[in-house]
Write a structure and sequence with these properties.
Elements (H helix, E strand, L loop, with lengths): L3 H6 L2 H11 L14 H14 L10 H8 L3 H8 L4 E3 L2 E3 L2 H7 L5 H14 L1 E4 L2 E5 L1
Antiparallel strand pairs: 1-2, 1-4, 3-4
Length: 132
């Protein structure tokens, strides 16, 4: 629950659970129930406004990635396309090498590419990869 619209659609039991799970972070006492729905929504909204940043619901991964593209250094690194050589043969990408050499699926290539970018050179199945 991280927005007012979610408060409006949550059940009263969910509001009580959220309030009780977070009330002590701001020095409030837990409740057994709220007097009515309007009070529940009002108190949960007030509690959410008082919560420290780390206790509030975090943004989605997609929102975080979208935001990170605004950092010029991050954007430049993401836009960099590295080719690689495998035992002296040049490929435009790690994925192209994986396909040509039947080394695995896209997920395996991504995982390997990440490790290769960190190390610069890496071996896989007796094949020596290096970035260009």
């Amino acid at each position: 629950m991280n927005t007012i619209s979610k408060i409006a659609t949550a059940t009263t039991a969910e509001l009580v659970n959220f309030f009780n799970a977070n009330c002590e972070k701001v020095g409030k006492a837990p409740v057994k129930r709220f007097a009515d729905r309007k009070t529940a929504e009002k108190r949960v909204a007030a509690l959410m406004a008082e919560l420290p940043v780390e206790a509030k619901a975090t943004r989605t991964a997609a929102e975080g990635i979208r935001e990170s593209w605004k950092n010029p250094e991050v954007a430049a690194k993401r836009m960099t396309r590295n080719g690689c050589t495998v035992n002296g043969t040049e490929f435009p990408s790690v994925w192209a090498a994986f396909q040509a050499l039947n080394l695995g699926n896209a997920n395996a290539a991504i995982k390997f590419r990440m490790a290769l970018k960190k190390e610069g050179k890496k071996e896989l199945n007796g094949l020596n990869f290096s970035l260009i």
